[in-house]
Specification:
The protein has one domain (about 5-155): Jelly Rolls. Helix content is about 10%, strand content about 45%. It is mainly β.
């Protein structure tokens, strides 16, 4: 699959970037330049890895492809912690896809005992590293002290 290490953890490969461009005048003020309408990646997390808490300016739809369940932890604007179980078994509360809202902090990890999870992430307006913020452990823990244990586990600095 020719994956590359991702700064948040895990590995990825971009598989789609829309050729249609949204100009800044048609985007919310959080965007500092033009953006492709949509982007999509493959994303692989393996046992012992995690995708560290981060946020982006766009909504991100996660799609399950294969492997073991992926737990995605999302802290929404109201400060509530949501746990999404991305997987292939609806009887266990798993979904084939979920949406992380723009501006929410989120992190992910393969379920305990799992070996890997291969998923896809679709972002619209399209992903740009200018819209990406990796969480600072201390700052995020101070903002959400009730989740400090989870934040400590799923941040790097």
């Amino acid at each position: 699959m020719q994956l590359t290490h991702h700064i948040e953890g895990g590995s990825f490969r971009e598989v789609y970037r829309s050729s249609i461009i949204a100009e800044p005048s048609s985007l919310p003020s959080a965007f500092n330049g033009p953006r492709n309408f949509c982007t999509s990646i493959y994303f692989l997390l393996e046992q012992g890895q995690f995708s560290a808490f981060h946020k982006i300016h766009s909504d991100e739809t996660w799609h399950f492809y294969t492997g073991h369940s992926l737990l995605i932890y999302e802290i929404n604007e109201q400060g509530n912690l949501l746990t999404h179980r991305l997987g292939k078994n609806p009887a266990k509360g798993e979904s084939f896809q979920c949406v992380i809202k723009a501006g929410n902090w989120f992190a992910s990890v393969v379920e305990e005992g799992g070996i890997y999870a291969l998923v896809g992430c679709t972002v619209s307006p399209g992903f740009d590293f200018n819209d990406f913020e990796l969480a600072d452990r201390t700052a995020l823990s101070n903002q959400y002290p009730q989740y400090s244990s989870l934040i400590h586990q799923l941040t790097r600095t």
